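Morning, I've got a small favour to ask if you have a moment. I owe you a coffee for this, so here goes:
>
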Amino acid sequence: MPVIDRYYVGGMTNRKPENVVRGNVHKGKGWEGFSSSPSTLIGSLDLKQICCFVAAYEEGSFSRAAEREHCTQPGLSVTIQRLESAVAHRLFERKARGVTPTVAGKQFYASCVDVLKTVVQARQHMLDLAGNIPAQINIGLPPTMFKGVISRMLPDYLRTHPHVDVRLAEGYSGTLTDWVLSGQTDVAIVTRPPAHLGLEATHFYRDRLVLVRCANYGSRKRRKPSGHHLSELAKLKLVLPSQRHSLRQIIESGVRLDSTASARILEIDGMLGTLELVRTSDWATVVANLAVMDEAKQGRLLVEPIHGPELWIDFYLIRTKDALLSVACRDFLNCMRQTLNGLENAHGIHATPETSVS
């Protein structure tokens, strides 16, 4: 979730709730014990309370929610208590290991997500009407997208968007997901769709995994890549990311990899180091075709298809549920898609870029 300032509307963000009347809200007595009407109580809600509630719901913890909302845990706890008084319902069951939503809390969460999204949409709509493009976009990308796409499309984007400051951050799925949740990036493209309640994911691109060797290996063994059966990977010296990465999990879902007398596994969590080792040794690796197609065309690497079955990796665009992408951000992502489409047509890449971002 982004910081509270994003939801500043008419001075409500930092205003303390007014006319909150306390009663037996924790005893299941509904409106009994309240001297004010429901309409008065609901009118006391503000966006700060709603943001804190959504954060606590999605994180399952007041302490993690406080960290996400950049406030103290006691302060957030008081905010939630005032909110429960305002709506006359207990929203969470407090436990030693965190909080779990009540039935009322679950229903209130769906409404709160809609409220926050509506506020962001209204703000963005006003910016769009004024032709006002935000000065900065922050996007997180995996190494594959940096190597295969960004160098091609970024110069054109910067030329057509001279007043937009572009900030790109490279990382793997877990790190990128954390950056989106903390507001450090507006959106990110990951290879593992997160299960976090505060995020939504849409499919962005699909690419085939290929076996990559040094170029000299091809001249010694064969002139043209012939492909490898998936089971043959178990006999090779492979440089792979550690098992927490989705790429490794995809590979091992099709073949069991163990170090033997003729086969070894070397773990490197970094594409730059992996490909540099492959270029200068007899080690091989498995990556998305998009990441190495240029070097294959230049003869710097030997890229071979994998079959029996083929292996595919999917990329997902993630953002917080309340986030509405700015015009500048949408243009950037659509430019990426157009570049992917162009690569597919020019290089015969058998992959599936999705439709435009809205």
In short: The domain at 4-129 is CATH 1.10.10.10 (Arc Repressor Mutant, subunit A).
